[in-house]
Write a structure and sequence with these properties.
Strand order of the largest sheet: 15-16-17-14-13-18-19
Low-confidence stretches: none
Number of domains: 2
Strand content: 15-25%
Number of strands: 21
CATH architecture of the largest domain: 3-Layer(aba) Sandwich
Number of helices: 17
Structural class: alpha/beta
Radius of gyration: 24 Å
Bound molecules: nicotinamide-adenine-dinucleotide
Oligomer: single chain
Shape: globular
Length: 495
């Protein structure tokens, strides 16, 4: 990678500088150094991509689905071949460890694999003789030009939650990646180009909030997929749907984990450490609140505090690093401010990750693992998505009290995922049945659903009907057409 590489849009099969007059620097969060510049594309660039997409759509939707998936098979092979290269780029611009970066790409590749099954997934339904001699069937047709707007924290994986399904079903797809991490998508689109999709089928338009508005207001974009923070998800959902578009908008999260006294506390603590501090807590599936029940409190509190204090923080390309920096200086300041606010509201700072640096990386955006005990469920901290390596501890006397804490909308309005650690099947069933969240983990850290299941967030974590991935993705990117037909023998020419 060259210093201050200038990033380009990929429109109509061409890498283009575009007409943007404004640009942003992209920083390596471990060093603070500017490593690239990214253009903030104006509405004209979005319009050029939409027109190219519409031109391509006329032919792409006619291509048999078995042919449309062939470039996806090639893309899968290319992504496997370039895993190391892309993993390094993710670490350089996003900060997570190299292992986390490669792991992210693996989960992205899964979606390419699932979308290769679109010939089966896209099939409709039919009935013969819904009335005498009349048949009825439902088939799925693509929408046209669709777009996705993605966040900084999984620059390789999240675009792949959408792109493979959108194009395999016959749509033309435009991606607007996060302006904080646009280098990964340059690499991704270089491979998309090599995989051999026709010009206009998959396009990349870099930019920020104004570019998003141009996408939301463009009359010829039919559907919007969004992943990011809840306030922006709500905004995107309202503006897109007010403009008559389909929208699926995944928002923020504040995932609780309940730990029963009959759980294996040692293993649970290890898993919790990875869930809370992996990717520096910048995951919509990070655990943010651990609720211990009864006697689980003492051993878990001691164990997690030791684990947090011992986690090795550093540059993600250093093999011994277990946790990287947070994404920007502003994020670091925001997270440290929230820790302070929590302490002011009465939480006990058991492990304090503020004001730390890593030797040799003085300008990095470091926040070390932090554990806050006795967090008040009604506090501002409890209601706020921290999106950093901060774990809040709460305590409950019974599983019922713990479930009440998880479901209490005054303290947690999200519903991305909730997990339970126990050795009781009855408690596990009670939790799965009663908890108000769209993804549930039992004796599992806060794990993302596999690509052949929907990413099923609820409440303030999701706005829309059909989620990302799997059959939901296929349904989101297609419209159903129902055909009723009658072919009376007596109307046919006799041969
Ligand atoms: P963000 O909301 O700041 O940005 C997401 C996208 O929206 C970016 O492409 C950005 O350019 C655009 N954007 C930002 N502000 C905008 C505005 N005012 N108007 C229009 N567009 C705007 O999110 P982020 O900081 O990049 O990502 C972190 C957030 O994403 C966290 O809240 C995290 O929980 C969430 N997230 C959710 C999931 C999920 O599956 N639910 C997955 C990953 C991340």
């Amino acid at each position: 990678m060259t210093q201050q590489q200038e990033l380009l849009n990929y429109v109509n099969g061409q890498w283009q500088r575009g007409s943007a007059t404004a640009a942003l620097d992209v920083h390596n969060p471990a060093t603070g150094a500017a490593i690239a510049t990214v253009a903030l594309s104006p509405a004209a660039e979005v319009d050029a991509a939409v027109r190219a997409g519409q031109d391509a759509f006329a032919e792409w939707r006619r291509m048999p689905v078995v042919d449309r998936i062939q470039p996806l098979f090639r893309l899968k092979m290319l992504l496997e071949e370039h895993l190391d290269d892309i993993g390094r780029v993710i670490t350089e611009e996003c900060g997570k460890t190299y292992a986390e970066s490669v792991g992210e790409m693996r989960r992205g590749i899964e979606n390419v694999e699932v979308a290769c099954g679109t010939p089966s997934l896209m099939q409709g339904w039919n009935n013969e003789d819904i009335a005498r001699g009349i048949d009825e069937h439902m088939l799925r047709q693509p929408l046209g030009v669709v777009a996705a707007i993605t966040p900084f924290n999984f620059p390789g994986m999240i675009p792949l939650w959408f792109l493979p399904y959108a194009i395999a079903t016959g749509n033309c797809f435009i991606l607007k990646p996060s302006e904080k991490v646009p280098l990964t998508t340059q690499r991704l689109f270089a491979l998309i180009e090599e995989a051999g999709f026709p010009p206009g089928v998959a396009q990349l338009v870099n930019g920020g909030a104004d570019t998003v508005d141009a996408i939301l207001d463009h009359p010829d974009i039919r559907a919007i997929s969004f992943v990011g923070s809840t306030p922006v998800a709500k905004y995107v959902y309202s503006r897109a749907t007010a403009n008559g578009k389909r929208a699926q908008c995944q928002g923020g999260a504040k995932n609780p984990v309940v730990i029963m006294p009959d759980a294996n506390i040692e293993t649970t603590t290890q898993i919790m450490g990875d869930s809370a501090f992996g990717c520096a807590g910048q995951r919509c599936l990070a655990v943010s609140v651990a609720i211990t029940v009864g006697q689980a409190k003492e051993p878990f509190t001691e164990g997690i505090a030791d684990l947090a204090a011992g986690r090795k923080v550093g540059y993600g390309l250093d093999e011994t690093t277990e946790m990287g920096p947070v994404i920007t200086r502003e994020s670091k300041e925001r997270i440290e401010g929230l820790i302070e606010a929590g302490a002011q509201e009465g939480a006990r700072v058991l492990v304090d990750g503020r004001q730390k640096t890593v030797a040799g990386y003085d300008d990095g955006y470091w926040v070390f693992p932090t554990v806050l005990d006795a967090v008040d469920p009604s506090s501002h901290l409890s209601r706020t998505e921290i999106f950093g390596p901060v774990l809040s501890l709460m305590h409950a006397d019974t599983i019922e009290d713990a479930i009440d804490l998880v479901n209490n909308k005054g303290s947690n309005s999200y519903g991305n995922m909730a997990c339970l650690f126990t050795s009781s099947g009855a408690v596990a069933r009670q939790f799965r049945y009663d908890v108000d969240a769209g993804n549930i983990g039992i004796n599992i850290g806060v794990a993302a659903p596999m690509a052949f299941f929907p990413f099923s967030g609820w409440n303030e974590s999701f706005f829309g009907d059909l989620h990302a991935q799997s059959r939901h993705g296929i349904e989101f990117y297609t419209q159903t057409k129902v055909v009723v037909e009658r072919w009376p023998q007596e109307w046919s020419r006799k041969f």
